[in-house]
Amino acid sequence: MLRLSATPDKERGAAGVLVAAMMLVLIGAGALAVDTGQIYAERAQLQNAADAGAMAAAQQCHAAGSCTVSQALTWARELTGPNSNDGATTVDSVDLSVPNQVTVATSTLNGSNGAGFLTKLFASALNAPPITVRAGATASIAPPGGATAFPLAISDCQYDLSGAAVTGAVQLIKYQPGSGTCTSTSGHVIPGGFGWLAQSGTCTATTDAAHTVPTDTGANYPGSCDATLTAWRTTILAGGTVEGTFPVYDDAGGTGIHGWFHIRGYATFKIIGWAFSGGGTPKVFRETMPYVGSAANECSGSCRGIIGQFVKYESIDSAGDSSGTGPDLGSVIIRLIK
């Protein structure tokens, strides 16, 4: 008769040990995945906060003319918190060492307990330390390097907005603006022309600072601008404000189809009224008293021109835009550069 001997199974329980070890690995991997997602989410919120803080501080510093680090820090803090999910963000520093730039650095501030690190990390079960996440942003303040706008250039000898003024005096800019460097011997800056530019689109001209651009011959108003003037008129009648950024030229030459303007920079003109060739609506609008401030600014009879005032203007463009090397004529672009 055969006997079955009961010999010990040396591998009994090995599967349990393997499962336990794998569970630790799986838990660790899961914790890492969840925590990494939390870190990235926090990083995105901190970046939003840094972007908003840098833009806000840059705008306020430019509006004030200058600012201290303490002032910029206060302005940055006003927007960093509201641009975080938990409404809380630490502004570590504000750097103004580079002219016309504001750099803001942010880090984690837990909205529930004020801790400077992320809480409830799964990896803490594996004795991993808490995490502090950081982000930074830099906003620049620079004059526009180019523009696509109403196809009319204005002479720099008519630009009168000083660096300290928020708004210039109301003035009339005519087809025959004056004498000396403003006009030619015939009374126009270019014989037979005004400041009209060759159009790159419907009632628009694309220009770049420090470049020359071709003129549109003659002093006649371009008919393609009727829709633009109608929109301006509607806005003003509704109590709104029309502000156009115009290229400013410092030199001009040539005649006819060979005429040109050298663009110095860009200035924003708050438009009050105008009188262009052809007459009637919309070519003529509020060109006389009581709208134009004084009788000297009226553009009646054979006068052709626009009435308004140069103003300081900020364009907020976080997506980025061209900034140039021209002078600051009161119009700047505030944008994120990193």
Topology record:
Elements: H1 14-64, H2 69-80, E1 89-95, E2 101-108, E3 134-142, E4 146-149, E5 154-155, E6 171-174, E7 205-208, E8 212-214, H3 226-237, E9 243-253, E10 260-275, E11 284-285, E12 305-311, E13 313-316, E14 331-336
Parallel strand pairs: 5-9, 13-14
Antiparallel strand pairs: 1-2, 2-3, 3-14, 4-7, 6-12, 8-10, 9-10, 10-11, 10-12
Summary, kept brief:
With 338 residues, the protein is an alpha+beta fold. The chain is built from three helices and 14 strands. It is 22% helix and 26% strand.
Number of discrete domains: 2
Mean pLDDT comes to 79
| Number of β-strand runs | 14
Low-confidence stretches: 177-181
Could you characterize what this model shows?
This protein has 338 residues and is an alpha+beta fold. The protein folds into 2 domains: 22-142, no CATH class; 146-336, no CATH class. It is built from 3 helices and 14 strands. Strands 5, 6, 8, 9, 10, 11 and 12 form a 7-stranded mixed beta sheet that branches. The protein has a 5-stranded mixed beta sheet with strand order 1-2-3-14-13, with helices on one face. The protein has a two-stranded antiparallel ribbon with strand order 4-7. The longest helix is centred in the first third of the chain and has 51 residues, at 14-64. The protein is elongated, with a radius of gyration of 32 Å. The relative contact order is 0.14.
Which descriptors apply to this entry?
alpha+beta, about 350 residues, 2 domains, 7-stranded mixed sheet, 14 strands
